[in-house]
Design a protein that fits this description.
Blueprint: H1 9-23, H2 40-49, E1 55-63, H3 83-86, E2 92-98, E3 103-109, E4 114-120, E5 123-128, E6 133-138, H4 157-171, E7 172-176, E8 180-182, E9 185-194, E10 201-209, E11 215-222, E12 230-238, E13 256-259, H5 265-268, E14 282-284, E15 291-294, H6 298-301, H7 317-324, E16 326-328, E17 331-335, E18 340-344, E19 349-352, H8 356-364
Helix pairs in contact: 2-4
Length: 366
């Protein structure tokens, strides 16, 4: 059976694995236990078999992408709309908690502040202690839960493993490296090495818990670099259910709270109209050489060539992009060790783990 989503695998492997590690559970394992030898197919099957449960742990992230660190205070400090940029620079620590499908909390620990995402039932909270702001949403009933009626659409673990490996084999050499220890647990190390020499990525290593298949860490190396360009892994992991109070949240006194409306698409979508085709992006190329094109949008309206001049506003997206990008023919380039992003003067954006000339060629072909 054809699964179109498999063509996105190289672009989503890392975030998907990280998300699986954050949102899924694990069985107990003794540190140092030797693991039986497994093929790449068997390790992929092990990943597919892991199930949700309760746990808590600490994640450590390090990034050496070549981006400048964002200021932590003053007029250049990052604001709420630039937090995603800040997570790409420097080291970060996050505490994660999970209890079933409806209780989760992620705490990103900054130097002098904390950012939280909390789900408790259908209640969803975002909080930033730096400026004491919070956002709240009520999710539609059943959001994020498993729909028993959709079980037939979920491939069996062995079929999924075969399909994944078949797709990976087209663009990567997939092997199982030496066992590693992650957060005191023995893990398989699934290694992906791109076959193409044109991609910026040199290798991907995914640490997979030897007992449960839970991804425990991801490491990406760029060509020409000995140290990882990006790494995230558990340093502590407990398989006990977290204290229920962890998932209870009330905004602190004086906090500014914003309500976020959430539309129930199941109840409001027209039933007599076919689903619209997703035209938000186009993809050219294959595998790790894929180039994603985003249409002119929000960034096209922001003067990325000119940093904001007013005190207290230089932390916005336009200013930070101006600081992190360099001018090139037809636009500006955001260059990192793993990904290049070409922002054209007409607002279109081309991104990929490829050199600039590949992005420019893709832009010229559109």
């Amino acid at each position: 059976m054809t699964r179109p989503w498999l063509r996105w695998l190289p672009a989503v492997t890392v975030p998907a694995v990280i998300a699986a590690g954050v949102l899924a559970g694990s069985l107990s394992a003794s540190a140092g236990d030797p693991l039986p030898a497994k093929s790449p197919e068997q390790v992929l099957q092990l990943i597919a078999q892991h199930r949700e449960t309760s746990f808590s742990g600490t994640l450590e992230q390090t990034s050496k992408l070549g981006l400048p660190e964002l200021p932590q205070a003053g007029p250049g400090a990052s604001s709420g709309d630039t937090g995603w940029l800040e997570l790409l620079t420097g080291p970060h620590t996050a505490r994660v908690y999970r209890d079933g499908t409806d209780n989760a909390r992620i705490q990103v620990m900054d130097r002098l502040a904390e950012r939280d995402v909390i789900r408790h039932g259908n209640e969803l909270w975002f909080y930033n202690s730096k400026d004491n702001t919070a956002a709240h949403a009520v999710l539609p009933a059943g959001a994020g839960s498993h729909d028993p009626s959709g079980q037939e659409s979920v491939p069996a673990p062995d079929t999924l493993a075969e399909d994944l490996l078949a797709k990976l084999d087209q663009s990567s050499d997939v092997t199982v490296g030496a066992d590693v220890q992650v957060a005191g647990r023995t893990a398989y190390q699934l290694m992906l090495t791109p076959k193409s020499s044109s991609t910026l990525l040199a290798s991907v290593a995914i640490s997979v818990d030897g007992q449960s298949g839970m991804p425990l860490g991801v490491e990406l190396k760029a060509r020409g670099q000995s140290d990882p360009a990006f790494r995230v892994a558990f340093t502590k992991l407990s398989l006990e259910a977290p204290d229920a109070a962890i998932f209870q949240f009330s905004p602190p006194p004086g906090a500014t709270v914003k309500e976020i409306p959430v539309q129930d698409h199941k109840s409001t979508a027209p039933r007599d109209r076919p689903a619209a085709k997703d035209s938000r992006h186009n993809v050219s190329g294959t595998g790790w050489e894929s180039v994603v094109e985003l249409p002119a949008g929000a960034w096209a309206k922001a003067p990325v060539q000119q940093p904001a001049q007013q005190p207290g506003q230089s932390g916005n997206v336009a200013s930070l992009l101006a600081q992190a990008t360099v001018p090139v023919a037809g636009g500006r380039l955001l260059s990192t060790a793993l990904v290049n992003v070409l922002i054209l003067d007409d607002g279109r954006i081309f991104a990929g783990s490829v050199p600039l000339d590949r992005l420019q060629a893709a832009a010229a072909a559109r």
